[in-house]
Amino acid sequence: MRVPLSWLGEYVDLASDITPEQVQADLVKVGFEEEDIHGGDISGPIVVGEVLEFTPEEQNNGKTIRWCQVRVAPDGQVAADGGDAIHGIVCGAGNFFVGDKVVVTLPGAVLPGPFPIAARKTYGHVSDGMMASAKELGLGEGHDGIIRLAEMGLDPEVGTDALELLGLSESAIEINVTPDRGYAFSIRGVAREYAHSTGAAYRDPATEVVAAHGVTDEKSFGNEFPVSVDDQAPIRGRVGCTVFATRIVRGIDATAPTPSWMVSRLKLAGIRSISLPVDISNYVMIELGQPNHAYDLDKLAGDIVVRRAHKGEKLVTLDDAERTLDVEDLLITSGGSAVGLAGVMGGAHSEITDVTSNVLIEAANFDPVSIARSARRHKLPSEASKRFERGVDPEVAAVAAGRVAQLLVELAGGQLVDEGSYFNHFAAPASIELPAGFVSGLIGLDYTDAQIESSLTEIGCAVVPAGTGFTVTPPTWRPDLTDKWTLAEEVARIVGYHLIPAELPVAPPGRGYTVAQDVRRRVSNTLAATGHTEVLSYPFFDEETNNLFGSPTEARVPQVRLANALDATQGWMRTSLIPGLIGTAARNRSRGLSDLALFETGLVFLPAAGVSYGQDVVAGGVRPTPEVEAKLYAGIPPQPRYISGLFVGDAQSKQPGQKALAYNWQDALVAVQQIALGAGVAISVRQGMHKAFHPGRTAELLVGDVVIGYAGELLPSVAEDAHLPRTVAAFELNLDAITDAAGVPHTAVDIRTMPAATQDLSLVVADNIPASDVLAAVVEGAGELLEEGILVDVYQGAGIPEGQRSLTFALRFRADDRTLTAAEATASKEAGVALAASRFGATIRE
Fold first, then answer.
1. Domain-ending residue, one of 715, 742, 769
2. What is the dihedral of CA 548, 552, 554, 558, to 10 degrees?
3. Are both 419 and 436 inside the same structural domain?
4. What is the pTM of this model?
């Protein structure tokens, strides 16, 4: 919300030397974040000048310029730039006459852009300044020539400071308004909040306008223009329109210029000037927070009816777009035809044009949910919908309609007639019981009853003592005050956030990370400490990608599809983390980072086949029953937490005397073992298959007998499709399964103190037999004396029959109670060899 300070000062007392920074600081105290300061992008000297004479001069390029003599200071005085009172100025506009008073930007002035003004030679003359248009001064979008002050109803003295005259020296603050405080999208609301913060005197525009301008807030005008609401399909049981006020002004001049002070204020508020009727409508919306709309009365076909759209009904809105309406859209109709999308945008048919004479003004109160849905459905965010979505004061509608009418009379020459109507079915805010001690107990600061009562009264509540507490009725402009918790927040805000003690809570003894939290942190820290980079990617992919990585063998996997995907091609929730890592790697390589070891932890979405999810939706604001809660949880697909890694480029860069060492499947397996160490679990490896991985370079990863993931090298075609090198290593593990294994109590074993005996064993087996299976057989057969067995070499070549390979294992034997003899170790090894021979036909390599 942008707030011009001069406008704010009309309704709350501001110090004469107040700065925008101080106003922002005061509003921060009552919960508004400061965003920016606007204005100050124009600097003088900019003065009022009088055209004394001009000479038209036709140029070779076909353009005609005027060489003008302009008085910029009274006779006998020095101009504001230190020059003569009469300046020679070249001007290309042709809409002014001798004797006109204009706005002159003298050398040294700076216009928005920034565009500095200086004396310069052009078209054979030295132009000592510039006569300015509205666009050049930031007062409007049109460029119909320079500003003629007489057309604005102004006749100032020559040399008058035009910055002050046109309000160009003003500034505005911008604050962030949270969704629950929609009343602050108005000068009325911000002025009230400033008064809360500083204690400055506040004047409510809703009453000030009536008192100062004679604008009646009468809510019945004989009903000459009837309004009715026919809402047969209320959303969530809430009727779409509860208040609808109309006023009629006849005989306006729609082409009358908008006063410069209004244009300046609207500009500072972030709204461009369009035409006088539209500017007045926007001005009142900013001032009172009540969106309103003006219709060309002569284009309306009959009484006003507010209803829902019919299926397939169409409306051409003010942006000239034809929109197919939804049956939930709330419409304003006249004579059965739609003339506006309620609370969002008016219709083009009843738009005010330059020939409009008679105007119907509408100010209404619409259901926030209905307006929010329509604005999003049609992608039509507007200043009006922004306010209706957050809640508008229903009691200000009639005043706003009257305020618009009053300004049309004053500025557009219209006549306010005693015609109009007022529809009001708004229910008064419900009272809230505020028990004694509740506020203090919730906030953590002792508040007296007087502080509570005065704070709530100050924000407009009616507060009545009741027993040991209060009965509080919120004001109509605060729909966010719905319970005792929101009332407590207001007390804390008004009394002062700075008084609330800052004390860290002390965690009860014995608490700490859960097993899952601890495992996740240890695993992530382990990978990060060993040179891997953690990343975070989006969980949305296309269906084909999910099918490729979602299952090792199935061609298609069940997937969760988004109902409102941001990108229609990426509308499915991920079944694997690896595609996100592939995208991250490709993006980094395109920016020159070629050597990457990445990992990510996150949820994947694995729905069961044939099960529908997310079908049960309950109303917000009400705690669901246990039965409903169970149905809601059942409507969520399984979401296990995975951890994945991806390796591309060089693991070791090229160095003098040493070639670069590229990442491969071994690096993926090393990372898996690091995860196993970090989590404190045993992860075994065996030959595996996965349709996204390279055949023969894929490993299944197991905890016990359960497969929890895969590691290896991706298919070269998959890597190339992502614009990555052919060799890309990756792994993916079910981190929840690792967590479950880590949570199982472990039994500590005695540390063996006796000397170990070591022997090597080389076995020849068929090359399609996994080395891990052979090692497992050796370990099982060798018995308890074998402490450890490790694969140290794989050989195929001379001396080894074709189709076979030699596997060499390093074995370590140890007894608990004695030093083993070589014969005992050999006997244990031979038992292992015997079992490997019986299972796989293994023979000792000669």
1. 742
2. -70
3. no
4. 0.63
